Amino acid sequence: MLEPIYPTVLSVRRIPNADEAVLRAYGADPSRHRSLGLVTVDQDDPTYVALDEATKHAPVDVVYARSFYAGSKHASGRLSGEILGVLAGADPDVVEEGLKALVRCLEHDACFYDADGKGTIAVFPHVISSLGHYLSAQSGLPVGAPMAYLVAPPIEAALALDAALKSADVRAVKVFPPPTETNYSAAWLSGDLPSCETAAMRYAEIVVEVGLRPREV
After folding, report:
1. Comma-separated ranges of CATH 3.30.70.1710 domains in the chain
2. Mind listing the pLDDT tens digit for each residue in 47-93?
3. Residue 81, Ramachandran bin (φ over 0: left; ψ between -120 and 50: alpha; else beta)
4. How many CA atoms does the CB half-sphere of 153 hold within 13 Å?
5. What is this structure's pTM?
6. Which CATH fold topology does 115-212 show?
7. Which one-letter DSSP state was computed for residue 3?
8. Which of helix, strand or coil describes residue 165?
9. Residue 161's pLDDT band (boundaries 50, 70, 90)?
10. What CATH number labels 7-110?
């Protein structure tokens, strides 16, 4: 059983009536959006999942979501973390509902796992059973479709992705080879829910196996 590495939500703030210049700067549409909700977290990929979750619970849009270079250990400040995410909505109430769903997801669902028992290799073998509007648009998959969201360090990810694709009836929707902003590698796989779950499990198994045997003799 892999031990979870729970993300830390570093900041959650609201701008109830944002200036038009701020709205536009962060990708919002002033004709539809008035309020913003901003979060920083020390894990980026769980936050992308949580931002997508917010769109399932409130009429909000993810207008900005970017990972920071080199990850949270090299953040620009105490509250910077690894990612800034911004939700936009027509009023403060809908943004508040989106933020609540986002934080719940980070506290109870989406997180990295310790793959080597030492905290030196982390893996994110996450399955989204039903995509929201944000990751649906990013992946090109329909809203409500399942998706395996897989992340690991570079060599572990390459081997694990190959094994995951061979383990179930899934296809690669998007592959993010290294270096990404945090120097990890990621992939999004589509298929039915059981196939996505099988592929994610196989992905995690291979990451663990590579950590145990990094060099084949």
Report:
1. 7-110, 115-212
2. 999 999 999 999 999 999 999 998 888 889 999 999 999 999 999 99
3. left
4. 16
5. 0.97
6. Alpha-Beta Plaits (3.30.70)
7. E
8. helix
9. very high
10. 3.30.70.1710
